[in-house]
Amino acid sequence: MAEYKILTINPGSTSTKIAYFKGEEAVFTENVAHDSSELAQFDRLSQQLDYRKTLIEKCLADSSLTLNDLDAVVGRGGGLMPLAGGVYEVNDQLYRDAKNGANGVEHPANLGPQLARYFARKASCSTFVVNPPDTDEYQDLARMTGVKGVYRTCHLHALNLKETALHHARKQKEIYQKVNYIVCHIGGGISISAHRRGQMIDGTDIVGGEGPMAPTRAGSLPLTGVVELLNDGVSASDLRKLCTKNGGFVSLLGSADAKAIFAAAQKGAEAEQLAWDSMIYQIAKTIGQMAAVLKGDIQAILLSGGLVNNADLVSQITDYCHWIAPVYAYPGEFEMQAMANGASRVLSGQEEVKTYTGRPVWTKEAFPF
């Protein structure tokens, strides 16, 4: 892969990660912190744009980094309509949808395309997003439920899942588009996905309350239990928060600190041990579901994310699932590298850039129910 110069920008709730790549090497990385009192003055995420721009510009200037010779700027995508995976140029439609949160989700990632376009225009270079969170490659069977008008939707850690699969394929000298993997992102949130010949045909909706519990997410719940919570006065808003930030270890133990919870479990704390083991049990069970989706034709089970640094977690999942396929651990997250790699594939001609149209890859009207 040629040594392209690429700036990647990944906005989070309280910071913005930036990285400057020369080829595959990140020669500069920084987590630009944002003061919570400063952020509180903005009613909407898009209003934070100028504030974040200024801080990033200062960070780059302080580090004596120039934008003059950049080949591309890549922003974390968000707010987009469901789309196939790949690398997309930030055109006017994509920019507007990110700014307006066209999919109804207001997330810091929505700022990614806006920030990327700003810096790319200063550098007179290309602007991309790579496998944004709205990536949706589900097969129709995966969308169906047993209730008319209710369909499963796709919300996954698509960028990291796809990059983990591509990284493993390169290491094994396999072609991602010709193999089947089960790929798991295991961190504060947990995504588990079935990849069939380069497409994520099924997975767990981490926004909709599916899959295993995670440090901050409830995962799948029995519907009758949810009804009882509503009858007890829990609001719909609070239920949604259980799906995204107040569930899992937060609800059970009052903390999302998985490292501390594991340490307590190792010292004999029964509640922490049960919560830890239950999370891993549910991860393994969901991997089994994805194995059925792929009809047992699986070349590898891939684990990525921050919690994969924990040897006990990897050991337990391997013990549960090794009979399905070999288990490989890739600790940490590859988001910044994934964005740079995606841009490099397009710039070098290895992959064709896609055009965002704003038309979702599926609609309810396409189904007979």
Based on the structure given, which CATH architecture of the largest domain is correct? 2-Layer Sandwich
Overall average pLDDT: 95
**How many runs of DSSP E, i.e. beta strands?**
11
Rg over alpha carbons: 21 Å
Strand order of the largest sheet: 3-2-1-4-6-5
Q: Give the number of helices.
A: 13
How many domains would you count in the coordinates? 2
- CATH topology (level 3) name of the largest domain: Nucleotidyltransferase, domain 5
Seen as an oligomer or otherwise, the chain set is single chain
Strand content: 15-25%
Helix content: 25-40%
CATH class of the largest domain: Alpha Beta
Biggest pleated-sheet summary:
6 strands, mixed
Give the end-to-end Cα distance, rounded to a whole number of Å. Answer: 47 Å
Shape: globular
Extract low-pLDDT stretches. none
CATH superfamily of the largest domain: ATPase, nucleotide binding domain
Order of helices and strands: EEEHHEEHHEHHEEEHHHHHEHEH
The structural class is alpha/beta
InterPro entries: Aliphatic_acid_kin_short-chain, Aliphatic_acid_kinase_CS, ATPase_NBD, Butyrate_kin
Keywords: ATP-binding, Cytoplasm, Kinase, Nucleotide-binding, Transferase
Subcellular location: Cytoplasm
Enzyme class: transferase
Explain the layout of strands and helices.
Blueprint: E1 5-11, E2 15-22, E3 25-33, H1 36-39, H2 49-62, E4 72-75, E5 87-89, H3 92-100, H4 111-123, E6 126-130, H5 140-143, H6 158-172, E7 180-186, E8 190-196, E9 199-203, H7 223-231, H8 236-244, H9 249-253, H10 258-266, H11 270-293, E10 300-305, H12 311-321, E11 327-331, H13 335-347
Parallel strand pairs: 1-4, 4-6, 7-10, 10-11
Antiparallel strand pairs: 1-2, 2-3, 5-6, 7-8, 8-9
